[in-house]
Amino acid sequence: MSQVAESAETDGSTGAGSAGSGLHLRNLRKEFAAFTAVHDLDLDVPSGSFFALLGPSGCGKTTTLRMVAGLETPTSGSIALGERDITWEKPYRRPVNTVFQNYALFPHLDIYENVAFGLRRRKRKDVEREVDAMLELVELTSQARKKPAQLSGGQQQRVALARAIINRPEVLLLDEPLGALDLKLRRSMQIEIKRIQTEVGLTFVHVTHDQEEAMTMADTVAVMNAGHIEQMGAPAELYENPQTTFVANFLGQSNLIEGTVRGRDGEDVKVDMQGTVVTIPGQRAHVAGNAGDLGWVGIRPEKVLIAEEGQVIDAPGNSIPGGVVTDVSFVGVSTQYLVRMPWGQELTVFEQNTGRRRLFAKGERVDVSWRPEYAFLLDHTQDRAAGRDEDAD
């Protein structure tokens, strides 16, 4: 058996979710001949959680996963499960299973025997009962005697999950598991995998470049860039309050507008944004906040309100006049506008298609505004375009 296939069938005999367990990476580093893929990573993944490593191609997320699986040797640092150091253990001795993008199913075995494979290797009792229960969990009981080639991509993915989960590893690693599926099937599988994780209560560590996938499935997301973690937290926290331009751009879209800090007003920060003074809540201002400092005022496109020129906008923030619609894209649930502002920058605006408001036309003059509590302020020394045009893995 290949090392990859073998690592996907590890013993897992230590059980899952044991007291004091959880995945702990300390100063984990991986150097290759020409570059450093992972820079002194510190990470704690609580037992029973669904954790996602999110980032573009080459950011180090897959290398990190492979070090946890034992398929790559760290240059330095440590990997522990609970109090057990597994840094140098062989892949097949780690209580860790891996589900790969290509599923790594055995084509000559039927679905039942693929799922039973790990149990039979260890000469476990009650194989039939455990396999039947696992096939029921992944809703494939009726497909048990088919070969993998007879199943759809989504069904093969569920077989791979069942084969890994049945060994009860402490951690299940998912390496871009949905990358080979089409968009509609990928979205349904996101919900399905989250359901399975909730039911079995195992620790899942999911590597992906897909922002929607990470936000839909994970309890906690770590956004990686160039071997470092830029920011980590709950999906909503990362999206609503990004701390770097990379996170603001990579996790969804953001309008980033140059401004000069005027100073603090209580807990808020006042910023002169191209001639309009806007307010940023203190907990969303990720700069020193000293008068005269430059910063990037950030606002998500769906938080921007748009109205006809001179019309009162139903928002307590400042109305910013002088916009001109330069592009209109109807995408069903929303209409996406590009609005060129007087200082030359184009802002992206998403407006939900509720049917209560007419569509604006290209060339029409408009005003924009947003509620102050939705804006954020980022360090001007960071690249405004960071994370914007990253290629998918």
Task: Summarize the helices and strands and which ones pair or pack.
Elements: H1 3-7, E1 22-31, E2 36-46, E3 50-54, H2 61-69, E4 76-81, E5 84-85, E6 96-99, H3 111-121, H4 127-137, H5 153-165, E7 171-175, H6 183-200, E8 203-208, H7 211-217, E9 220-225, E10 228-233, H8 235-240, H9 245-250, E11 255-265, E12 268-273, E13 276-281, E14 294-299, E15 305-308, E16 320-330, E17 334-340, E18 346-352, E19 365-369, E20 376-379
Parallel strand pairs: 3-8, 3-9, 6-7, 7-8
Antiparallel strand pairs: 1-2, 1-4, 4-5, 9-10, 11-12, 11-14, 12-13, 14-20, 15-19, 16-17, 16-19, 17-18
Helix pairs in contact: 3-4, 3-5, 5-6
Structural class: alpha+beta
> What is the count of structural domains?
2
Give the helix level as a range of percent: 10-25%
Shape: globular
Assign the CATH class of the largest domain.
Answer: Alpha Beta
Could you say what the CATH topology of the largest domain is called?
A: Rossmann fold
- Would you tell me the overall average pLDDT? 89
Number of separate helices: 9
Indicate the radius of gyration in whole angstroms.
Answer: 25 Å
Q: Tell me the CATH architecture of the largest domain.
A: 3-Layer(aba) Sandwich
Give the full name of the CATH homologous superfamily of the largest domain: P-loop containing nucleotide triphosphate hydrolases
Can you put this structure into words, describing what you see?
The chain has 393 residues and is of the alpha+beta class. The protein has two domains: 3-240, Rossmann fold; 253-379, Nucleic acid-binding proteins (OB fold (Dihydrolipoamide Acetyltransferase, E2P), Beta Barrel), CATH 2.40.50.140. The protein is 22% helix and 33% strand. The chain is built from nine helices and 20 strands. The chain has helices at 3-7, 61-69, 111-121, 127-137, 153-165, 183-200, 211-217, 235-240, 245-250; strands spanning 22-31, 36-46, 50-54, 76-81, 84-85, 96-99, 171-175, 203-208, 220-225, 228-233, 255-265, 268-273, 276-281, 294-299, 305-308, 320-330, 334-340, 346-352, 365-369, 376-379. Helix 3 (111-121) packs across helix 4 (127-137), helix 3 (111-121) packs parallel to helix 5 (153-165) and helix 5 packs parallel to helix 6. The protein is globular.
